[in-house]
Amino acid sequence: MNANDKLEMDPMLGDGPDLIDVDMPEVAQAAASPAKPRRDLSQMMRRIPITLTLEVGSARVSLQDLAELSEASVVELDALAGEPLVIKANGTPVGRAEVVVSGDNYGLKVVEFSGLDLDRLQG
């Protein structure tokens, strides 16, 4: 291709910005087609299982201290005795609770809950 070939192609290419035809009937038809019905997100969210856990507290220890732990070891946690424990939903804190006995199992008694408003997700 020489310089003359390029000059002959320039009129075919146009100026550039108007290469896209926005008046295409396919685009107008797609924009005018009815939207699919929205799913009720709050109802779907209500059926998703999550894991609730109670976090007693935590401690920062060195690997050396961890390696030296035995059955009789005691590790002091950062939580005060008697204070409510952190409720976590899939690892995210959502409130505080106390441990209770429910039949043969432990349970949790909610003391404080930040609330999950699933109805707000309807958007």
UniProtKB/TrEMBL annotation:
Segments forming domain Flagellar motor switch protein FliN-like C-terminal: 45-113
Claim: Transferase is one of the keywords in the record: no
Subcellular location: Cell membrane
Source organism per UniProt: Ideonella oryzae
SUPFAM superfamilies for the chain: Surface presentation of antigens (SPOA)
Chain intervals for the UniProt region annotation (Disordered): 1-20
The protein, known as: Flagellar motor switch protein FliN
Assigned protein family: Belongs to the FliN/MopA/SpaO family.
Keyword presence, DNA-binding: no
Record's bilayer topology term: Peripheral membrane protein
Keywords: Cell membrane, Cell projection, Chemotaxis, Cilium, Flagellar rotation, Flagellum, Membrane
Primary location recorded for the protein, binned into one broad class: membrane
